[in-house]
Amino acid sequence: IIVRRNGLFFFFNPNFGAIAFYWPSKVATGDAEGIVNAKEVVRSKSGSIENFYDVAIEVFLKSISEAPAERSTYQVLLRLEQQGNVVEKRSLRDGLDMWKTRDGNIEEIWYVATKLSDPTGDRPVVACRGGDTTQSRCTGAFTWQPGVAASMRFRAAHGPDWPEIYLELSRVLALIKKA
Question: What backbone torsions phi and psi does residue 139 show, to the nearest 5 degrees?
């Protein structure tokens, strides 16, 4: 598959479809043979996937002009902290911190992978809206290559797995080749 972002073309393995993989199995969404190993996937009687958005980690490449003004989601979090919108910070486990922010009526939970760095040198971060982990989504973005941002989204129930998801995301992005 070829995509064009910021005047550059990128090739990536069609087994990753829209650059997505199932969690926690790490099976590419387009991998027809490997999906049998994705125990988290629930199929309907017709064979379609019933719970795609509950178990998929979706990754999108965007031109920087389409991405947030900050170079990474971590910069957004630091700005919120400077504005006094961080209401809680705590370590969930070695390598993973959780921050809660409130900006007006919007409350978010942020997961920070404290022992990892994104390509800009910032800590990898995702933000998850609301408290309903069965319906809420986590989102994040960072400058992946000059002029190109990688953004992702997945169900908030996977937020506590953020460092491991980020490592898999990095592995998948490394498979993408510039044309």
Answer: -140, 155
Phi, psi (rounded to 5 degrees) for 77: -65, -45
pLDDT for the residue numbered 105: 86
Reduced to 3 DSSP states, what percent helix, strand and coil does the chain have, rounded to the nearest 5? 25, 40, 35
Give the residue with greater pLDDT, 141 vs 117: 117
Q: Is the pLDDT confidence value at 42 over 70?
A: yes
In this structure, how many other beta carbons lie within 10 angstroms of the beta carbon of residue 159?
Answer: 22
**Tens of pLDDT along 105-117?**
889 999 999 999 9
Cβ contacts of 107 within 8 Å, gap of 6 or more: 100, 101, 129, 130, 131
DSSP secondary structure, 85-149, as one string: -EEEEEEEETTEEEEEEEETTEEEEEEEETT---TTSSPPEEEEESS-TTT-EEEEEEEEETTEE
Query: Could you tell me where the DSSP H helices lie in 17-68?
Result: 52-55
What is the rounded CA–CA span in Å between residue 43 and residue 46? 8
Query: Which H or E run contains 45?
Result: none
| pTM to 2 decimal places | 0.86
